[in-house]
Amino acid sequence: MRTAGNRWRGRYRRAVAAVLLVFVVPVGLALADHFSGAAAGFDWRSARRDSSGQAPDPARTPEAVIQVFAARAVRWRGALGVHTWIAAKPQGAAAYTRFEVTGFGVARGGDAVRVRSGVPDAYWYGNRPTLLRELRGGEEVDRLIARLHAVAEHYPYRHEYRLWPGPNSNTFIAHLARAVPELRVDLPPTAIGKDYLPGGGVFARAPSGSGVQLSLGGLLGVTMALEEGLEFNVLGLSAGIDFVPPALRLPGLGRIGLPGEDVTLGR
Q1: By CB count within 10 A, which of 54, 110, 165, 267 is most buried?
Q2: At what angle do helices 139-153 and 169-179 cross, to 10 degrees?
Q3: What is the pLDDT of residues 162-186, one digit of tens each?
Q4: Who's near 228: CB < 8 A, 6+ residues apart?
Q5: What is the C-alpha to C-alpha distance for residues 194 and 255, in angstroms, rounded to an integer?
Q6: What DSSP assignment string belongs to 230-241?
Q7: Cβ 257 vs Cβ 214: under 8 Å
Q8: pTM greater than 0.85 (yes/no)
């Protein structure tokens, strides 16, 4: 006869096996792939930073454009995580503005937030970026860009950067996305730091604006949203399931499934 103790031990073993399958195995695969490839002999000084050809030429694109990008991080960080940023240009603008956070120079008193002109779709030190979201349109998109500038100006961690669990580059983009939910940004599970809520918050809108999340210091939490689906955060690593469109969300490996849709406003 099976005792209550045996039943609990069986459930415990299944729970451990599930955690190993969902978190440990994908992380192991991501680490093995990264360190067997381009990570060897990497030199950041000579790495590509030119355009990847994904942003519309402003000289030929009078409409307003917002694009959200993610690219594998530099060196060993790229095994598990990505760097994210937003590029935007209002109607008729001759250049794009990049919204991002970097840790370069913060220890010497520099500003982590960088909002300035730049190549919108540049390789991130040799890593080709993935376009997560694109919005095009007229005055409505212009208004969203103005709101991005306002929110970035009051970001609470302008002089702080911590790789794990945050605040970092992904914390900043998630913060902008929550404040401008019309972007509908679905940040990938590899965007470590996206679940670090400013001000020590516990409950917040999901970065996509399509649901809610609970987070304990960016180390433990859950997100439930139309865009993100159901996603669990354990020690900054995220895993879950997207429902629309269907996909798996795996730590280290990223989002595996059907892509989302771009958005056009004001037409």
Answers
A1: 165
A2: 130
A3: 999 999 999 999 999 999 999 999 9
A4: 186, 187, 206, 207, 208, 210, 211, 240, 242, 249
A5: 15
A6: EEEEETTEEEEE
A7: no
A8: yes
